Amino acid sequence: MSLVGEGLVGGWRRGHAVVDGLTVRVEPGRVLGVAGPSGCGKSTLVRMLALLHDPWRGVVSVDGTAVPRTRYRAPAALRRRIGVVFQAPRAAADPRLTLEQVLTEPLRAGGERDRTVLAARAEELCDRVGLTRDLRSRRPHEVSDGQLQRACLARALAGGPDYLLCDEMTAMLDASTTAALVAVLGAEVGRGLGVLTVSHDEPLLAAWADEVLRPW
Amino acid sequence: MAELDLRRPAVRPGEPWRPAGRRRPGTLRARRTWAGRGRLTAGLVGLGLLVAGAVLIPWLGGLDQGAVDYTAVRQPPSLAHPFGTDAVGRDLFLRSFAGLGVSLTVAASCAVISTVIGTLYGALSGLLGGWPDRILMRAVDGVNAVPHLLLGIVIVALYRGSVLAVIASIGLTHWTTVARVVRSEVLSLRGRPFVDAAISGGATRRRVLGRHLLPAVVPPAVLSSVLILPHAVWHETALSFLGLGLPPHLASLGNILAEGRQAVLLGSWWIVVFPSALLAATTLAVAGIAAWWRDRARPRRRSELAL
């Protein structure tokens, strides 16, 4: 029972592999850290594990089931089991939607239509990540980076994923917001969420990760 | 790590938060500058007057499309004929507004047809990417390579002399511009992380298109198709001039302008000036509304406009 990437090879330009033969295993209830210099393929690794980028070789498997296809062609149910938090919250939230729409989007995509259910879920998610309720009607440009990153984390948690991939989630945030988000995630890990976190923040990795992967 | 109490509410000012410029409790209306609304108001009022004129004036004036009066040929503007009369003595005031109605119908239908086809085609091409995108865009190049007028003539020649054929011939040849605009927008949008986030949330291709891409793409597409309005009138003129478009007794701005060209050489400027002024006014009014909508569709710009 884990999210496994086995022998992953992949990149963006032909013949120039960014991730070269890497095996990672994200286990429920544990935090796996990934560290390394800029441009060494950490984000590419996250994208491949999140089924957003085709590996050239190697297999990503969720709980023992190999997923042969990526992006739209990967089964939606499997995609929903892997949450992703991106580095830049500004780019990762559609500027046209309100925060409430942003964080209920995965539920709508899952077929939930009932407005009262959606609103209740949105409130619950806001409380969980420490987003005050009056922020829900604002659009991304009307909130701060930290507030937006909380919303993005809430969106990643909305579908109730088993695994969460954080791509330098805290790189743009101040220390207190970082601590708050990590505390939120700590509670989720206690409930059995498997986390892979990419970070340059060595003290954070030392304090938080059960194991740190330094493949480069 | 230090304990952090997430449930503690932040210290806030007494009023609930609202973006600057939204209605303040206790005041009748929000502060607004004229800048954002001016274009919309002017556009709506102008377009409303023109459409009302196109509908009402020929009706109230009792326009008879076939009637000619050789005792009142090429009369300059006067009280009896505010826009003057044309080469066979027809009142230009009535004919111009009747022609505006016909031309507006033709141009608006063309704009709608080309927006719908262009948006769907461009969005599909941009979203599929890769070799389907290349094939679809080469097809656009193919349509563009054939002169529009030639393609239009073929379509009109197949179905002679009807308004529908004119609409089809213009609408089916002018969607390529819109398709290009939409495709480039979609290409730039679909690589953004929020699309990745939607995919990872389990969204289907159609959902990403309808929820994230089309709402961002439709306003510029509509704006680019609004620019087709005057062009469509020109095309209708050209087709009528070649004897393939609308029959000459039926007033349309194109027909009036085509006939007026010879009269201008005899000094009858009013036959060209007044219908052209109506055409220009229509274009400006529609462009004003479209520009307002484009600005409103950008979230950040919208909150600036509210100030």
Brief description of this entry?
The complex is a heterodimer of chains A (216) and B (307). By secondary structure, chain A is of the alpha/beta class.
Question: What would you note in describing this structure?
Answer:
The complex is a heterodimer of chains A (216) and B (307). Chain A has helices at 42-49, 76-80, 89-92, 99-109, 115-129, 145-158, 175-190, 202-208; strands spanning 3-13, 16-26, 31-34, 57-62, 65-67, 82-85, 163-167, 194-198, 211-213. Chain A is an alpha/beta fold and 216 residues long. Chain A is globular and about 50 Å long. The mean pLDDT of chain A is 89. Helix content of chain B is 67%, strand content 0%. Chain B has helices spanning 34-60, 92-128, 130-145, 148-158, 163-171, 175-190, 193-200, 205-226, 228-241, 253-265, 270-296, 299-305. Residues 30-34 of chain B have low confidence and may be disordered. Chain B is mainly alpha-helical and 307 residues long. Chain A binds chain B through residues 47, 50-52, 71-72, 76-77, 79-80, 82-84, 86, 88, 91-96, 105-106, 109-110, 127, 130, 132, 134, 138-142, 152, 155-156, 158-159, 176, 179-180, 182-184, 207-208, and chain B through 1-2, 4, 6-7, 9-10, 16-17, 19, 192-194, 196-205, 207, 211-212, 215-216, 299-300, 303.
Features:
heterodimer; A: 216 residues; alpha/beta; 5-stranded parallel β-sheet; 4-stranded antiparallel β-sheet; 8 helices; B: 307 residues; mainly alpha; MetI-like fold; 12 helices; 67% helix; flat
Q: What average pLDDT do the residues of chain A reach?
A: 89
Major beta-sheet overview of chain A: 5 strands, parallel
Overall pLDDT metric of chain B: 80
Beta-strand content of chain A = 15-25%
SS class of chain A:
alpha/beta
Radius of gyration of chain A, in angstroms, nearest whole number: 17 Å
